Amino acid sequence: MRRQDEIRQKGSCLNRATENEMIFVLLGRDKCAPAAIRYWCGERIRTGKNKATDFQIVDALNCAAAMERDQEVEKKVKE
User: Fold this and answer.
1) Close Cβ partners of 7 (under 8 Å, ≥ 6 residues apart)
2) In Å, what is the CA distance from 69 to each residue of 9, 19, 39, 41, 72?
3) Fewer CB atoms inside 10 Å of the end CB: C or N, the chain?
4) What is the full per-residue pLDDT of the chain (79 aa) written as tens digits?
5) Could you tell me the residue ranges of all domains in the chain?
């Protein structure tokens, strides 16, 4: 989810976090972020927390793909 959407959406992961809860943010420009997201999705499925078709997993995988697309565009702009 893009930062502006994450902040605006009341039910977002960031907005559901409790005041003292630890969170970890992956930036879209981080080359490792898409792989980390895919690994997290795999672990959620492996441990039975989610199914591959759950919105949370589909959304996360779409986010990873969007990050890769944005990174490719940025790379081409710099060339």
Assistant:
1) 14, 15
2) 23, 33, 18, 19, 5
3) C
4) 788 888 888 888 888 899 999 999 999 999 999 999 999 999 999 999 999 999 999 999 999 999 999 999 998 898 8
5) 3-78
